[in-house]
Amino acid sequence: MTFKEEIKRRRTFGIISHPDAGKTTLTEKLLLFGGAIHVAGAVKSNKIKKTATSDFMEIEKQRGISVATSVMGFDYKGYKVNILDTPGHQDFAEDTYRTLTAVDSVIIVIDAAKGVESQTRKLMEVCRMRNTPVMVFVNKLDRPGRDAFEILDEIEEELKIGVRPLAWPIGNGTEFRGVYNIFEENLYLFTPNKQTLEQGIEFKDIQDSKLDDYVSPRAAATLREDIELVQGVYPAFDHEEYLKGKLAPVFFGSALNNFGVQELLHAFLQIAPSPLPSKTETREVEPDENKFSGFVFKIHANMDPNHRNRLAFVKICSGHFQRNTNYLHVRLGKQMKFSSPTAFMAEKKSIIDEAFPGDIVGIPDSGNFKIGDSISEGEVLNFKGLPSFSPELFQYIENADPMKSKQLAKGIDQLMDEGVAQLFTNQFNGRKIIGTVGALQFEVIQYRLLHEYGASCRYEPIHLYKACWIQSDDPKQLDDFKKRKTQFMAKDKHGRDVFLADSSYMLQMAQESFKNIKFHFTSEF
Ligand code: GDP
């Protein structure tokens, strides 16, 4: 296969949903179709189920599971499919945002009865920022749910994206019999089976009267009417609009019963983009460039506290990645060779000799990598699109064991490199502030500092509303602002200026009085 063909056959995507909509179940069914697993139950949910903070081993175990299912690759009908898993728990939303920078498209799972939920809305905003092509799978049609047309309207309104159904449910609730494939204009009826894939019955034409016997005459009649209505109401599917992230093809089904999953997968393979160009600070990198480049979007700590090895997840953006070859670690300006790069095939991990754009490679790392680091064949490239988001929760972090201050500093440093939370240093009193998206992270940090670095920390409350990155073309006003707000000025990990607003009112006042200063809620602008 040529290099270009390798790129063209790759589909790298993420599945996102509000917790419980059916992401894990759908992932598993896709793996079953792909032949990557043979019975259901092989994929463990990486859900962090406890919000209580008592059972740390549980969190650790679950972190272990999430590394196993971080990337799931498989070959199917000539395509190489890479599914990137994202944590559903909202406390880990930032992890999900970062994973979304490594995908070329997204499938959103929605519960038919619950419709669009809060986490779905937030994740869609991230997709919109990057114009990521989005497909929607409306799940759990086997349960009494809402009318399909109503769900389509809700998706359009709530997710602010055009919709075009490419599959349609036959019956619903207990009468649900499968889905008609609008995209391929055929019907394939499965027998519901939760565990494996059963042989289905195929209909080329829904006007076929035999259909009445398989579903029911009433369901068949409703299907025929619905399809006529769909084709009348919605314009033909516009592939270009989908690729621009403006139009979401919508599929219906029941992941648990294997209804609608194959329809989704087949359409996905045909219309979802192969690896797209990646933006850097200097230029756009095309996947089919000869020279290798990639960036780190996720770092996973080793489960074994005796080995501080980590796994850096690298998304390959261009070129042909090869084992034991000298590459440039751009930030460190250092040549490095990777002797055991790992690829992920379903639940197996194995050392690989090569990888192509769109692939994710795991690189064992003893502390050289940070999230956002770029690797290349020599060119100084800095990939964009991995911003930090303004945290929601803040606490002062203090050393609780004066004998271990070095360990604490090192531990904090490494955990921040992994992107567990963000660290701000108050410029007025020098105190360190940890900012997170969820409360769970504070506990995870404290636990990991102790178990992996032998350091203890203690938190002290600080009341903050937001941390914003500030920037201005007016150095005088910027200077004036910093002087006036000394108590509220901090530096982030990279030495950038951050304003710590203690209330929305304070932020609003600052924005009104300092018109030449821009207040950003993400670190990349
Ligand atoms: P996730 O949190 O989005 O990963 O959701 P899961 O895949 O873990 O599913 C949440 C629950 O919904 C589980 O109990 C599943 O068995 C159930 N579920 C998933 N898909 C379906 C479906 O199509 N129909 C029904 N009735 N239940 C489903």
What is the gist of this entry?
With 525 residues, the chain is α+β, with helices and mostly antiparallel strands. The protein folds into 3 domains: 11-271, 3-Layer(aba) Sandwich (Rossmann fold); 299-376, 3-Layer(aba) Sandwich (Rossmann fold); 393-520, Peptide chain release factor 3, domain III (Alpha-Beta Plaits), CATH 3.30.70. The strands form 7 sheets. It has an 8-stranded antiparallel sheet with strand order 27-24-26-25-29-30-28-31. A 7-stranded mixed sheet has the order 2-3-1-4-5-11-6, sandwiched between helices. Strands 18-17-23-14-15-22 form a 6-stranded antiparallel sheet.
List the helices and strands and how they pair.
Layout lengths: L2 H6 L1 E8 L5 H11 L22 H13 L2 E6 L2 E6 L8 H8 L4 E7 L6 H12 L4 E6 L8 H11 L3 E4 L1 E4 L7 E4 L4 E4 L11 E3 L6 H5 L2 H17 L5 H5 L3 E6 L8 H11 L6 E2 L4 E2 L7 E9 L8 E9 L2 E2 L3 E4 L4 E4 L4 E4 L2 E4 L2 E2 L4 E6 L8 E3 L16 E7 L5 H13 L4 E5 L5 E5 L3 H14 L3 E5 L4 E7 L2 H10 L4 E3 L5 E5 L2 H10 L3 E4 L5
Parallel strand pairs: 1-3, 1-4, 4-5, 5-11, 6-11
Antiparallel strand pairs: 2-3, 7-8, 8-9, 9-10, 12-13, 14-15, 14-23, 15-22, 16-21, 17-18, 17-23, 19-20, 24-26, 24-27, 25-26, 25-29, 28-30, 28-31, 29-30
Helix pairs in contact: 11-12
This protein binds guanosine-5'-diphosphate.
Properties at a glance:
seven-stranded mixed β-sheet; binds guanosine-5'-diphosphate; Rossmann fold; alpha+beta; about 30% helix; eight-stranded antiparallel β-sheet
Q: Can you describe this structure?
A:
It is a single chain. With 525 residues, this protein is an alpha+beta fold. It folds into 3 domains: 11-271, P-loop containing nucleotide triphosphate hydrolases (Rossmann fold, 3-Layer(aba) Sandwich), CATH 3.40.50.300; 299-376, 3-Layer(aba) Sandwich (Rossmann fold), CATH 3.40.50.300; 393-520, 2-Layer Sandwich (Alpha-Beta Plaits). It is built from 14 helices and 31 strands. Helix 11 crosses helix 12. The longest helix has 17 residues, at 217-233. The protein is globular, with a radius of gyration of 25 Å. The structure holds guanosine-5'-diphosphate. Guanosine-5'-diphosphate binds at residues 17, 19-25, 45, 47, 88, 139-140, 142-143, 254-257.
